[in-house]
Amino acid sequence: MESIVKVTRREFLRLAAVGGSGLVLGLYLPSRITGATIQGKTDPFRPNVFLAIASDDTVTVVVHTAEMGQGVRTTLPMLVAEELEADWSKVRVVQADAAADNRYGRQTTGGSTSIRHSWEPLRRAGAVAREMLITAAAQAWGVDRSTCRAENGAVVHVPTGRRLRYGQLVARAAQLPVPDPATVPLKSPDQFRLLGTIRSSVDVEDIVNGRARYGIDVRVPGMMYATIVQCPVFGGRPARIDDSKARAVPGVRAVVPIEGMREPAWVNGGVAVVADHTWAAFQGAQALEIQWAEGPGAAESSERLHQRFLALAQQPGREVRKDGDPSGALERAARRVEAAYELPFLAHATMEPMNCTAHVRKNRCEVWMPTQNPQGVQQAVAQVLGLRPEAVTVHVTLLGGGFGRRLFPDAAIQAALISKAVGAPVQLLWTREEDISHDL
């Protein structure tokens, strides 16, 4: 056990939605699992939470990676629930904010790693809770622990058939010493009853009924709406701006130049239009008259890049593995077939265009964003605003597609700078044209 993260009762209740007595387990997930932190006391545990069990039998699982259609808000809780022997109908999901203190470990969603990185740690989180609940039940009955087993949200005394629901056991279980997660037994695959079965997405009903909240759906009191026109050449910037026609559009409130940058992340130079609603912002952006200083990137072209690729392909590569003798085989071959394939740069073209809502206040900032990298957003926004990462709260919404594009914090940096300039919460929404032409 490495650290204890202290939160107030109010903060705990907000996160875990647990009232009265409860059992909460937190598990630290570093990039390489070297140990876990689980601490707590009776009413309730106060660690960095991944799992909470309430006295009404509700099981709350905190999901630390982003949901972009791949199903992690369902599959990660299944990992916990499987080992916990939870009643799946009682499981609820909470989406984690970015954690500057790394309480959830790596929160990046990419490379198809969410399940691979969480497979054992989250199962162990559930297994630790299961073992503590079994011990609590055995103590309550005054029986040998080996005669008890967990089953579908309850502990059963096998010889007599007596049952105690998890909610009846959490107060007692919370007082027990926490076993080392590395020592708790895990199920073998033939014992799985949830994993490997078909379960509806926990979000499907909200998606079908339109209640699901994506980044584009965020609404904050006093929020203004913005869009941005960026230099068509990477690395360029606006040299002259005539915003008179844009400011004359009904509903337009401000025009904000945005400087390009390469650190802490690549952000193209551009001009943002802030308005009372998105349509006015889009109309104002179309009315802007901008002369661009395109910079050295203006000389780039697909043809130049193609020639550079051809030249690089003629250079010797670094050999990292060698099996057999391919060069000799080609020389001895009776027939050779050669082909060259070319692919252009492709936009990720997510269904939901790039967007971010930011509210910059004195010494702090709050961000709502469909992001695959909430900690990266937190670090980047903190750096450009001159804040500590802990002063930047990043709420992760559902993602309308990600595919790697939303690993980058460029829209978050722009939204934060615009919010700071106008002194109000701002939702930045790129047009589809900007989204396609400024992909990364």
Chart the SSEs and their pairings:
Elements: H1 9-16, E1 22-25, E2 51-54, E3 59-63, H2 72-84, E4 91-95, H3 114-141, E5 148-151, E6 154-157, E7 162-165, H4 166-173, H5 204-209, E8 224-230, E9 237-242, H6 244-247, E10 252-258, E11 270-275, H7 278-287, E12 289-293, H8 302-313, H9 326-332, E13 355-361, E14 364-369, H10 374-385, E15 392-396, H11 410-422, E16 426-429, H12 432-437
Parallel strand pairs: 3-4, 8-16, 14-15
Antiparallel strand pairs: 1-2, 2-3, 5-6, 6-7, 8-11, 9-12, 10-11, 13-14, 13-16
The counted number of beta strands is: 16
Question: Strand share of the residues?
Answer: 15-25%
Overall body shape: flat
- Give the structural class: alpha+beta
N-end to C-end Cα span: 40 Å
Portion of residues in helices? 25-40%
The low-pLDDT segments are: 1-7, 10-22, 26-43
Mean pLDDT: 89
Q: Give a quick account of the main beta sheet: strands, pairing sense, barrel closure.
A: 7 strands, mixed
* Rg calculated over all Cα atoms: 27 Å
Secondary-structure element pattern, one letter each: HEEEHEHEEEHHEEHEEHEHHEEHEHEH
Q: How are strands sequenced across the largest beta sheet? A: 10-11-8-16-13-14-15
- Secondary structure tally, helices: 12
Brief descriptors of the model:
single chain, 440 residues, alpha+beta, seven-stranded mixed beta sheet, four-stranded mixed beta sheet, 12 helices, disordered N terminus
Characterization of the model:
- By secondary structure, the protein is α+β, with helices and mostly antiparallel strands.
- The protein is built from twelve helices and 16 strands.
- The strands form four sheets. A seven-stranded mixed β-sheet has the order 10-11-8-16-13-14-15. It has a four-stranded mixed β-sheet with strand order 1-2-3-4. A three-stranded antiparallel β-sheet has the order 5-6-7.
- The two termini are 40 Å apart.
